## 1
Amino acid sequence: MQKKAFIFDLDGVIVDTAKFHYLAWKKLANDLGFDFTETQNEMLKGVSRSKSLEILLGIGNISLPQEQKEKLMDEKKSEIFILGRILGCFRNIAWYKRPDSASEKQKYIGSSGICE
């Protein structure tokens, strides 16, 4: 039987990714021209990426069109992989993104190791 899909857990159960999420949101805030603290980050725990972005933009008092928000969420997702690889938690990462021909949404494939 040929495998058609793999599911990778990146929500903190196998690998503690909380620090990567915080650093990625912080970088995004800094790129938008404001600071984002660890205390403020507590508001994002357990919240979807889109809702987290809305909270972050509210902290920075920034309003953006939906298209720009989608781009920022993709950038944040990519930043987590970059941070994880730099800090050695995604040792064997193999990922790429490609547009899905039907929806033009990005598809991500990844693999990770355990943080030490």
## 2
Amino acid sequence: MSSNAVKKSDQDLSCAEEIQATGREFEIYSKRFSGVEEAARAVTWEVLCREFFQQFISSRDFVIDIGAGDGHFIRNIKARRRLAVDLSPHVLELKKYGIEVMNIPAGEIAG
């Protein structure tokens, strides 16, 4: 078998796995990190946003986080308007932080 055939097969497997995971994001990501690791991620994003990213974003800006996931970035950014876009329904949780949400595939934003 040629190396191209192996690479093609690997790509097909990745697509198949991705299709099987669609709609199961919350289940998958809720088990991805332990409580300690999740707390460390939260603190890391808080520091990154406050100490680095925020310098590029003014309080008058509109920030769109495409592929927002659990929202660690968008929750820690101060802006006039914040929008989180993600395919997974868990993005809806971000509404309680005053963040606008679009629960759609990123490719449908302009649609």
## 3
Amino acid sequence: MADQDPKDELPPNWISQVLFAALLGVLVFAIILRPDQMAGFTTVPYSDFKSRIVDGEFQSVEIAPTEITGVSQDGSTQRMRALLPPVEDEDLLPMLEDAGVEVTGKPATGGGA
């Protein structure tokens, strides 16, 4: 018997094109609908987030190593997110406590022991 030609084992050209188009579609979808939008968060500047704390807009917040997220006081499902600046803000926790906001922490994800 003769060996098969390697070209015969490759998928037909149209299958490759369909797979490429599907992958491209998923990437475009992921870029357009960023993860924070898919999770229902509205991203705001950190200074705006702090102003909203002072205004009493949050029922609860969750502080992670690189971001802070908050659930609105009015009972709606509106959630906001802000990236934490790369400097320590010593006023943040007292501000949250003075506003009567429930505070939880979120551990860093990935790696680590």
